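Per reviewer request, we include the raw input and output of the structure prediction for the construct analysed in the revised manuscript.
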Amino acid sequence: MATQNFLIELGTEELPPTALRTLAEAFASQFEAQLKDADLSHQGVTWYASPRRLALKVAALSDRQPDKVVEKRGPAVSAAFDADGNPTKAAMGWARGNGIDVSEAERLKTDKGEWLLYRQHVPGQAIDALLPVLADNALNKLPIPKPMRWGDKDTQFIRPVKTLVMLYGETLIEGTILGVASDRVIRGHRFMGESSLTLDHADQYPERLELEGKVMADYEKRKALIIKDAKAAADAVGGMAELDEDLVEEVTSLVEWPVVLTASFENKYLKVPSEALVYTMKGDQKYFPVYDSNGELLPKFIFVSNIESKDPTQVISGNEKVVRPRLADAEFFFDTDRKRPLIDRLPELDSAVFQKQLGTIKDKTDRITALAGQIAERIGADKAHTERAGQLAKCDLMTSMVFEFTETQGVMGMHYARHDGEPEAVALALNEQYWPRFAGDKLPTTPVSSAVAMADKMDTIVGIFGIGQAPKGSDPFALRRAALGVLRIIVENGYQLDLVDLIRDAKAQYDDRLTHKEVETEVLDFMLGRFRSWYQDMGYSVDIIQAVLARRPTKPADFDSRVKAVSHFRSLEEAEALAAANKRVGNILAKYDGELPSSVDTSLLQEDAEKALADVVAEKVAAVKPLFADSDYQGALTELAQLRTPVDTFFDNVMVMADDPALKANRLAMLHLIREQFLNVADISVLQK
């Protein structure tokens, strides 16, 4: 078969920048899946994307499907003919459906009998008939939550479609997709280069578009250029640009011809906390802030223009004029807010609703203050500082700065608390109460901050569960993230806290507001469930996590120790045999309906193998007792691993379910004692090979 490179480009109005990469990658994967289903060979699919286009190039795409022979099996020969050898209705119906006579059917002989068989030769379709359908199918499967219509058309897409190019080598593939007929014409940049270009061959893309149309369709090339030039621009002013991945992605999706420029703002704005300035630069204007070697914000910012101006100073000046009012607003809000201490805003929290059934933010503040104080006593934090931080925790929500720049909540509270002369631990806690904000984020740095952060999160989790709004699919209150945050704070700081206590104390703050009776049980189950995803993300296998979950340890730090101990145990040579033995013992004990002795009666031991096992068990029980007392689960399991040989010998040589009831009960008691030692850590019987 012959092959050619294939190009498809969909020209649109401006696509949503935060969705551009997702759309382009989905288009490529869906189209590749369509090619696979159609049995069309190729050497790879490359995607391109800019604000006004999605495009794919398929390397060495075959010009047609391969011919196929399709086998269609009919009824068994015994059912296809009657006693006189005449075709039955079943055989004739099957043959008619295949367009043949029964006499034309072949026979298929297998070990299970003989059937009628029809082999149909299906010629492969040519590429020009297939590609429009495959492309349309792929586009229909893109992740578009809210498609739109335009003009008088019935077609729907994420944005209006203007052009369609489908070239197989130099051949135009004719067809209509999303209401637009295919052509050779692509659109260039709005303000530079050729406004439109006519392609003679698929191989001219994207080079001609970039050279003549001033559009860099290669997304990764555009992104790499922005990063390189932004770093160089920052270096030129003696600083370092903050190039957040998400912002770089968004900026890459906003421009077709990136030109990186550097602008300035007045030094006077640097007296405003840098977080507020950075928020407006990044969030509102999509600028990259610049810091010096000490991490201090410089009065510079880097931006990416979508045009190569003959007078870049005009572009720079324009951007400086745009950002200046926003910085002036931040300065005004900062100066105004500092005229009143944070604590004066506490009563105002009564005017803001946290959740209609759970009260106001002032109510939540009171609960956080009480709960954080209780936690502080358990983890050795300064209780007075913790309760003060709890009182102030949400006060910055009532400031002008946070009202205007919502993402500065917490950090502005910290700055205002410092201005008010609050202790540093209190000020830090106002910012760190929200940590960790996402998986892998940093944790609160002090016990005071940790206590407030846990109290805030536990209050939300217990409250929302307590009114019967536990997350199912969606999670509007981010309870999963909050639960994982609490677990991380406890585990990674080694706090000896019990989830049962935290949940109970959080519930107690609500008095009679909570209507759901099973709130404590359901919250505990929910939080234990977060361990599964967390440890899986860390690389632990599901069966290790399940082995620990089976014992429901409610102290997160203890849970962590058990998981690590079981993981180490599983690496031992003895682990597989002992896991199997534990499973066997569990099954035996489950079927026994009698009462087991509380201890092993050595006078009833008869066989050498059971005597030997009893001796080793007694030795190991004594050895692991102090290890369990110190929560040295790894050491305990390592000791218990030495039971493998005597346990195997016991099962090979001793009849557990003896006829003598006393003998049987005594042997079961010894097995029960062995299993109980392992269950002090985890149920290792669930470990897989």
